[in-house]
Design brief:
The complex is a heterodimer of chains A (264) and B (224). Chain A contains 9 helices and 10 strands. With 264 residues, chain A is α/β, with parallel strands linked by helices. By secondary structure, chain B is mainly alpha-helical. Chain B has 9 helices and no strands. The chains are: A alpha/beta (264), B mainly alpha (224).
Chain lengths: 264, 224
């Protein structure tokens, strides 16, 4: 059982030559490794014995109906919730011991933008960048904001942004510290077609750069198109995980219906 | 500057910058405090014999009630857009987040007191230059804000947060407020520093205990 991810002060492990063994190599190939993860809220089990492995550079799309445990799983991976039991490793680091180091490796985009309305986009990004000790921060902010096409609005207050623009700045916030793993919890919620298509392009280019992406969504078509691996979560369990190359949309819809009982 | 303190100051600066745009906390707390003082001012005739007896109570009742208003808002705007999650995602210990939020609230409270206390002294016809009162106010505010920040984080996750905060908070912070009231009474009577030293020590000890315990407990309050 984990004693809790927060407040741990152990230093990140330094791999020496003598450490290079099977375990290190295994950790090296997996960006995310979850074994027998259970998360309970009181007597309610949100996650039950979840096993999941995501290779470095993979784009995993996680499907599931409401209440399946998608958000809980993302929050555990993001170190926001403590596992009740089980093992979680991100980039080879155990969540129970190296939560602070893990936070440097992950970027989270959730339903909410995690931005302060009364600060400008630049001030928001500057704040988050300082919290992560980002070097050459101003330059990085300008480059990332240009990537999401919002340079002209950089010094406007976030309050004046549309939902789609806020989500684009939210992606920049998640990338400000150059994380190797990006977690997205239904990032397309509330976005129009144009914003969704831009989000898709951004995520695919991030994945092409070698970053590992885990995204939850209800949209089977978009999710299958974007990811190179899919998984279905139902009743707090990962009930299905397949590489995209083995799947068609019809196969996925059939599997989704079979495991969740929901029609698409 | 040590890294955790620098991060805490970054959080506090963000709160101050955000507040400077909206003035939500400063204006509501400041106006509320001034209204209470004016009402008490009509209740107790300035310059009369009983003023020095009631003045410390009036001052600290005002600061306490107005302060709760401000503290209640401290985590509300973090929660509204999920920014609290953002803070918890940062690669720092939870106590750094606590310290940053506490320093931000301390700045707001002191800013309100810098306006309210002199107005209180003028309205109650009391001497304006009282260095003892300045130190008492600082010590009491540190204690008040250190516990208040913790309970504000706790209350923000409850349905009846506006009611929960004072109910949880007042019994815990009472020793500091009582000590501040007693010490202020002595300061207004122009007693020496040594006469009020025991009250100042009580406040100092409570401040230290409150900050350490609140920083330790904060992690459990915000995580689930």
């Amino acid at each position: 059982m984990h004693s809790g991810p927060a407040g741990q002060k152990k230093a990140k492990p330094i791999v020496t030559e003598s450490d290079i063994g099977e375990e290190v190599l295994e950790a090296d190939s997996s960006a995310i490794e979850v074994k027998s993860l259970t998360k309970a809220f009181g007597k309610q089990l949100a996650l039950r014995e979840v096993d999941l492995q995501v290779k470095r550079g993979a784009f995993l799309t996680l499907f599931g109906p409401n209440g399946a445990g998608k958000t809980t799983l993302i929050k555990v991976l993001a170190t926001l919730l403590r596992p009740t039991t089980g093992i979680v490793r991100i980039c080879g680091l155990d969540l129970s011991e190296y939560s602070i180091d893990i936070r440097r490796e992950i970027g989270l985009v959730s339903h909410q933008p995690l931005l302060y309305d009364d600060l400008t986009a630049y001030e928001n990004l500057q704040f988050w960048g300082r919290m992560y000790d980002v070097q050459h921060l101003a330059e990085r902010i300008h480059n990332l904001v240009a990537m999401v096409g919002l340079s002209s609005r950089l010094h406007d207050r976030v309050r004046t942004f549309s939902r789609g623009m806020q989500q684009r700045i939210s992606i920049v916030r998640a990338l400000i510290h150059n994380p190797s793993v990006i977690l997205l919890d239904e990032p397309e919620t509330g976005l129009d077609r144009y914003a969704s298509s831009m989000l898709k392009e951004i995520l695919q280019s991030l994945n092409a750069e070698g970053r590992t992406v885990v995204m939850t969504t209800h949209n089977l078509e978009t999710g299958l198109e974007m990811g190179n691996e899919v998984a279905i979560l139902a009743g707090g369990r990962v009930v299905y995980q397949e590489p995209k190359r083995l799947l068609s949309l019809a196969n996925l819809q059939e599997a989704y219906h079979r495991y969740t009982g929901a029609t698409v | 500057m040590r890294l955790p303190l620098r991060k805490a100051l970054v959080i506090a600066w963000k709160d101050i910058l955000s507040e400077s745009r909206t003035r939500d906390i400063l204006s509501s707390v400041g106006v509320f405090a001034l209204l209470i003082i004016v009402i008490f001012n009509f209740a107790f005739e300035p310059g009369s014999d009983n003023v020095e007896l009631v003045a410390p109570g009036v001052l600290w009742a005002t600061i306490t009630f107005a302060g709760v208003l401000g503290l209640g808002r401290s985590f509300v705007f973090e929660k509204e857009k999920g920014c609290l999650e953002g803070l918890l995602l940062c690669p720092v210990d939870r106590d750094v987040v606590y310290l940053g939020k506490m320093l931000g609230s301390l700045a707001f409270m002191l800013a309100v007191e810098i306006i309210v206390v002199p107005i209180f002294l003028i309205l109650f016809d009391l001497p304006l230059f009282l260095p003892q009162l300045a130190l008492i106010t600082l010590l009491a505010t540190v204690g008040f804000v250190s516990v208040g920040t913790l309970f504000s984080a706790l209350a923000v996750n409850t349905r009846a947060r506006d009611v929960m905060l004072p109910i949880l908070f007042f019994p815990i912070v009472a020793p500091v407020i009582i000590a501040a009231m007693k010490a202020s009474g002595l300061a207004l009577e122009r007693e020496s520093w040594s006469a009020m030293s025991s009250w100042l020590q009580i406040m100092g000890v409570f401040d230290a205990i409150f900050i350490v315990i609140s920083a330790l407990v904060f992690e459990f309050v915000v995580e689930e």
